[in-house]
Each structure stands twice: as C-alpha cells, then as structure tokens.
Amino acid sequence: MLAIKEVFAAGYRSLRNIRFPVEPLSVFVGANGTGKTNLYRSLQLLQSAAAGTLTRDLAAEGGFDSVYWAGQRSARDPVRVRLGVCLSGEGTGDYNLEYAVETGLVELLGAGFPLEPQIKAETLVYGARSRSKILLERRGPRGHCIDEEGSKRPLGGEILPSETALGSLQDAAAFPDLHLARSTMLEWRFFHGFRTDAGAALRRPSLAVTSPTLASDGSNLAAVFATLAYIREDTVDLDQAFDDAFPGARLVIPQPDRFATFGVVFPDYPKRIFQPSELSDGTLHFLVLAGALLSYRLPPFIALNEPETSLHPDLLEPLARMIVSASKRTQVWLVTHSEPLADAIARDSGVSPRRVIKRKGETWIDGLRLSGDFAEDDDEA
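== Putative ATPase ==
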C-alpha cells in the first residue's frame, strides 16, 4: 500500500485553498471552529471518490449550498470543490501517484438534478524521479485512461457525471495504478464519535469472525480482541496499554464460540467480570481506541478526530502512548482540541503538533507557506 505524502483542498467549507505535507504521525491541534474537522473530512471525501460515492456524500452534507467556500470570492469564479492527495511508495520518493477530483453543479441542460453535485474534472498522475505520466484525465463527460499497455482508452458514456472514474474503472489488470490508488484509499480508516449508548454495537457481542482490523464504527471490537488472543496469540501490547490506563484492572477475552465478547475485572471486585454493557462510556471509549490502534493488522492510514472525547484526563497519556506506538506500524493522523493530549504525544514521539488557525475566515496551519511546506523544515534541513 501507499502512504499519504500530501493533501490539498480548495473551495470546501473553510478550506479556501490549502496544500500541506503529511508525516508518519501528524497531529493537528486548535480551538473549536478553526476547521480541524474540515481537514479530516476532506480525506474522508477522497475515500468517497475511491468508493464512487463522492457526489452522494456531498449531497448528504447539504449540497453545494453547505459545502462550498462561503468566504469572499469573485462572482466570476466557478463554483467548484477540489480535493486531492499525493500517494508515495513506502520507503521511497521515486513512486508517486497524485489524484485530484473537482466537483461542481449541474450545467444548464445537463444530465442531472438541478442541485446535484457532479464530477467536473478528475486526474491521476504517475511520477517517478524526473518523469511523470497522466494515467487518467477527465474534463466533464469526456476523458481517457492509460491502460497497462500504454494505450489510451476513452472513458466512454458508461460513467455518469455523478460517478468518479476512480470508483468506476474496476479492471485491476488493465489499470493497475488506478487500482492501487483506489484500493489504498479504500483501506483508510476514520475513527470519530463512537456510539457508547445502551444500544450501541460496542456493548454487544460480535460475530466470531477473524477480524484483523477494527471497523470504522467499532462494531467488531470483541472479534478484534479475540483475534489478538486466539489467532495471533499475543495480547502483550493490549494488556500493557490496558494496565497503563487502568492499573490493577484486567481485560478478559473468553474463547469465542458463535460470538466473541470481552469483559473487565476491576481490582475492587476481583471475582466479578464486568460485561461491555456495564462499562462506563469512558472505559468503553478507551477500549475501542485500543482496538483501533493495536489490532492485528493496522490499515495503511488511521485518522482520529478528537479521540479524547469522554475520556478522563488521566487517560490522555496512555492514549498518547498508544497513538505513538501505532505510528511505528502505520500512518496516523490526529485532529484534537486537547492541548494535554498533543503535548503528551510530542513528549513520547518528538513530533510537534501543527496548530490549526483561522485567517480571515480561512482555515490555515500555522507555519505553512503558500508553497505547501512548513517554514521550520528549512531549519531542520
């Protein structure tokens, strides 16, 4: 799989026009209302482009009235939302794929509903050393893709204006680079706002199916724990993280039958196993984050949006240590308004948080230059 090298967004909510590098561990901290979640959401929408659901997901946000840049703009500027990502081969800068997609409203007499978002442009560019090649180029209804033999294939009329070519061209043998970009983006995991109410899936047993990776809603948490205990047969990291957060307590993972479950034994009640339905919201929230960050197989990219929600302050340092540990196995992106969490991550990793700010209504990152890099990078070099 490929790692994220850069992200760019223009015209989306408070993201007027921004491009910035992404590190193995990226921490973005800032006050409420600065647009941290819009940075996070722009990556989710790129995954939607890979899944073929981008225009539907934009419509679900309220359509262009809600998602388009609301700040000052010229009346002559087209109403467009542009999102993109540069993916890089692991351990090398010689192999890059840059994907960009641009959406807008239906044109007069166009094929679509009046307020429906549509794909206006789409590109995938391959780059290695000093040479580059356009693998996918689309402008409105027309476009082409370069196949494995180097031949240019027209997109044809089978792809609707509301569909991405990235999500539609499924022939992995004919379009291997396109397939690699799409499959990488579909493997990303976004974790935000886990349900912990009485009816939440986290509080119920999950099917006993080998689960190397946590689902985005955490619904297979018990199976993730059982996979570590009985398939990998190694819960050392999980046990250590749990003891770090809850000294003297013990996580119990029974051998699954048709269903997998787990429980907790607290030091005050050594003979009583508390089931997930009995655990506090904070305890359950920490456990699902442990499932996300310590699972058997981590996805190529993990994004966490305000994971400190509902956690006691004493749990922030154990959470920071799990995040830093996970970043040694995969790429981790975190947005938070918790200064203590950001500081704890910085102490354990040496990675300084990036501060998200508002600049005349526009979301920006402190120290980011218009060239798309950070000022202190020169000093480090």
